[in-house]
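Worked example 2:
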Amino acid sequence: MIKTIFLDIDGTLRNSNKEITQKTKDVLKKCSSYGISTILCSGRSKEYAYKIALEACASKIVIASDGAEIYDFNNNKQLYMSHISNKTCEKIYNISKNYSVNMFIDTTNGQFTNDIERHSDTVNYAYNLKEIIQKNKILHIHFSSNNYESAKSFIENLKNIDNIKIGNNGNIFVFDNQYYIFVSTKISCKGLAIKKYCEMFHISKSETMSFGDELNDIEMFMQTSYSIAMKNANPLLKTYATDITLSNDEDGVAIYLENFLKTAKLT
């Protein structure tokens, strides 16, 4: 019997307009009625993931910052954390100042950015990010740029720093006409966080399912028994999937779960 379903957000749970359809919400509610937890598992900050979890009618426990944190919003309690050393973060910050990139920092006290145009209800603007780095535990960092050459040069410099992992297999990630670079500890990943979660709640691998679309979902797929790639997923991720569903613009998650709930696998 499936007890927990782990769901990526962008490109998976949400469509291209960043919407969660009513059909998807209804299916997640139905999963809950079967006693199945639906856990959002995202590269986003915990604050953002929680906001989406509430909209999606999913669990109030989220896996965020690409697996660097598990947070229980029911009890306002951090369940797991993996952070980058402050010294390493300062080094990354100092290098970034030489390039046309904006910095976003996921900390235990919220997400901060030096991009004044991108702050929101879940992202705090900070003029002095160095001070934020010095005073907080940093879970995950990402950079955005509209200058490909600058982002390319920056990522090559980052590869010289020890004890960090550059996401997307060390490559620039393109999303919404922006170039992104993701940085975490070497051990941080969705898969490890899922393993930690399952250990805490005594869930076996055979009782898990996941949905994803990008390379940072590979470890998640490896850690779950049923790993479902979206039709729009990265081709490499599809090679790790046990099944493929329709795209995120075709209610792929909802339709797959509707069919799955009818089978003996959930009884």
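The mean pLDDT is 95. The chain has two domains: 4-81+188-266, 86-184.
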